[in-house]
């Protein structure tokens, strides 16, 4: 290998910022000079632009992706005594927001090919207390929404999308986030569409849900100083919205770059299981996640070569200590547990060079770097 490359990060946000720096600095200066920093014209414009991009009626900026999920559940009236079915393999926020509402998260095993919730398993977990299903489009691969929609419709429950890792992905020609009762997005900095801090979004086609989310995100108030219910302070700020508007215009190109990197990996990596992509979806590869039966050996090679990697997620939700009261044990969700023991995510970000890809390949395949 060339001496020019001695390290590859898991993600390089500095490289992305360099591409938009001039526009971002001008936008931030404009916002700061305006004196309006919270839920002003930048937020309103961003909400309109995102709604148009996703094909939804309502988009509401909030403080984080976690808040977006929580606000959806609250807006739907989900609370104590209710159950919400969701995937066992995802970030903790998907389930802890359910618990924060006073409801019970009910876990379902995953499709081992896509890592997304298995619709058959979701249906098996439904009871007469189920109020919603939360489908996560994990790693940027859309969940199988058609059968999940059938399950939700037949049971008369809501289908919620957790789109934190999948901005721009499509299922059967439609953008994720437009397929359920409501959807939640995260703008954590490393996301495909990332802010320079926390930020989130709720999307829905239901005007009543949208209005309640807007009320709840501002202390339960529609009229200033008159609180109709207990809400929270969860608003997207003007600086983040201005930055996100600039990045939104580049999102499709950046996602295409991710797909190009993933395609190259698919054809050039050996000794690992590369990501499966269902025929009716577009994967946006927030993470490029492989399977490795000898994961620790792979991790050691990558660490020695200074190639960035991470494991998303090493402990399934049913084995998290915070959910110990649910009474689950090892073996309850075999597909999820196996994934947790084998998955590892490799560097992927827009603008990766061929030299970086070759360097990652050499580290993964066990060649000298």
Account of the protein in words:
With about 375 residues, the protein is of the alpha/beta class. The chain has two domains: about 15-250, Aspartate Aminotransferase, domain 2; about 250-365, Aspartate Aminotransferase, domain 1, CATH 3.90.1150.10. The protein has twelve helices and 14 strands. A hairpin with a 2-residue loop joins strand 10 and strand 11 (about 225).
Keywords, please?
single chain; 369 residues; alpha/beta; Aspartate Aminotransferase, domain 2; Aspartate Aminotransferase, domain 1; 2 domains; 7-stranded mixed beta sheet; 3-stranded antiparallel beta sheet; 12 helices; 39% helix; globular
Secondary structure elements and their pairing?
Blueprint: H1 13-34, H2 41-54, E1 58-62, H3 65-75, E2 83-87, H4 93-100, E3 104-108, H5 119-124, E4 130-136, H6 145-155, E5 158-162, E6 170-171, E7 174-175, E8 182-186, E9 200-204, H7 207-216, E10 221-223, E11 226-227, H8 238-248, H9 251-268, E12 281-282, E13 288-291, H10 295-305, H11 334-342, E14 343-346, H12 354-365
Parallel strand pairs: 2-3, 2-4, 4-5, 5-8
Antiparallel strand pairs: 1-9, 6-7, 6-12, 8-9, 10-11, 13-14
């Amino acid at each position: 290998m060339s001496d020019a490359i001695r390290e590859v990060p898991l993600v390089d946000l500095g490289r992305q910022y360099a591409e938009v720096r001039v526009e971002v600095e001008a936008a931030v200066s404009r916002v700061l000079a305006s004196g309006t920093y919270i839920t002003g014209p930048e937020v309103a414009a961003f909400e309109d632009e995102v709604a148009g991009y996703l094909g939804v009626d309502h988009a509401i900026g909030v403080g984080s992706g976690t808040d977006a999920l929580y606000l959806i559940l609250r807006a739907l009236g989900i609370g104590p005594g209710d159950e919400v079915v969701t995937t066992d393999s995802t970030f903790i926020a998907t389930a802890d927001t359910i618990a924060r509402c006073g409801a019970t998260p009910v876990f379902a095993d995953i499709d081992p090919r896509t890592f997304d919730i298995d619709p058959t398993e979701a249906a098996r977990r439904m009871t007469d207390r189920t109020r919603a299903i939360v489908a996560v489009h994990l790693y940027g691969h859309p969940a199988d929404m058609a059968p999940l929609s059938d399950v939700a419709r037949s049971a008369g429950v809501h289908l919620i999308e957790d789109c934190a890792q999948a901005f721009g992905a499509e299922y059967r020609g439609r953008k994720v986030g437009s397929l359920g009762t409501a959807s939640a997005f995260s703008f954590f900095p490393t996301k495909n569409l990332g802010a320079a801090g926390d930020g989130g979004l709720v999307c829905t086609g239901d005007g009543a849900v949208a209005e309640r989310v807007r009320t709840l995100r501002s202390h339960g108030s529609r009229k200033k100083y008159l609180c109709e219910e207990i809400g929270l302070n969860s608003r997207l700020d003007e600086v983040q919205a201005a930055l996100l508007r600039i990045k939104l215009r580049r999102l499709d190109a950046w996602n295409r770059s991710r797909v190009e990197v993933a395609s190259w990996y698919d054809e050039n990596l050996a000794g690992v299981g590369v990501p499966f992509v269902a025929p009716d979806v577009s994967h946006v590869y927030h993470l490029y996640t492989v399977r490795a039966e000898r994961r620790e050996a792979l991790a050691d090679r990558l660490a020695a070569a200074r190639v960035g990697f991470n494991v998303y997620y090493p402990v399934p939700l049913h084995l998290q200590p915070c959910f110990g009261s649910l009474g689950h044990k090892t073996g309850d969700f075999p597909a999820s547990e196996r994934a947790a023991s084998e998955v590892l995510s490799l560097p992927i970000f827009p603008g990766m060079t061929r030299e970086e890809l070759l360097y990652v390949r050499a580290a993964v395949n066990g060649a000298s770097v």
